[in-house]
Amino acid sequence: MNGIINHPEGYIASLQKDVDHYVNSGKWVEDMDKLEYKMNEVAKKAKVEDAKKLILVIKRMGGTKDTALQELTNNYGDMLSHGEIIKLVHEVYQ
Questions:
Q1: 23: domain range?
Q2: What's the CA gap between 80 and 62, in Å, rounded?
Q3: 7-53: per-residue pLDDT in tens?
Q4: Which of 1, 19, 43, 84 fits a disulfide with 80 by CB distance 3.0 to 4.6 angstroms?
Q5: Has residue 2 been placed in a domain?
């Protein structure tokens, strides 16, 4: 195919028109925004689970809450807010 449509009324031409309409209608941008949001949410949930595991390791090794706060801030401060980090540490150290 390589961008060449042999029959202006054929299946490929019809499919190309549908794709063009989808992209030009703005629906594509809306769908990509939704996808990006969902992917960010999944990534954040994974980071939270990873952070909890790190807190548990620090706790098992005899680390203090302050040590856990510092390590989480260093490792997850770009993805989690300071309040979220504090909440996670307090949950694990209860």
A1: 11-92
A2: 24
A3: 667 788 888 888 888 888 888 899 999 999 999 999 999 999 999 99
A4: 84
A5: no
